[in-house]
Predict the structure.
Amino acid sequence: MHKKRVLIVDDDARNIFALSATLRAKSFDCISCSGAREALEILRKDEVIDAVLIDMMMPDMDGYEAIPLIKSIESRKKTPVFAVTAQAMVGDREKCLQAGADGYISKPINVDNLLQLLRDV
């Protein structure tokens, strides 16, 4: 059985570093990129990616625009995409789910909540 591989998409290198370190410590394999366009390129390849953690507020293309594009890739229709956002206002979770996210986690990230999201991946 292979380690579960997570693609982290975030324009802030500090967030990528923290998430990667946390997930690697919990036996996940991580790859990352700093934007949605690069994520789409990675996801269009045949690479093994078990889940995507995507920041919802990025310049150029945000998560709300990127998630439907990810889900439109035939080989990624069942790949779980989890929204990661500092926006924790009423309705933000619903907005992320409406965009096609399979789950939602707010920053600062609660590690137990993150692991719960990734448990069944």
About this structure: The two ends are 13 Å apart (CA to CA). The chain has five helices and five strands. The longest strand covers residues 5-9. Helices lie at 13-25, 36-44, 63-71, 92-98, 111-118.
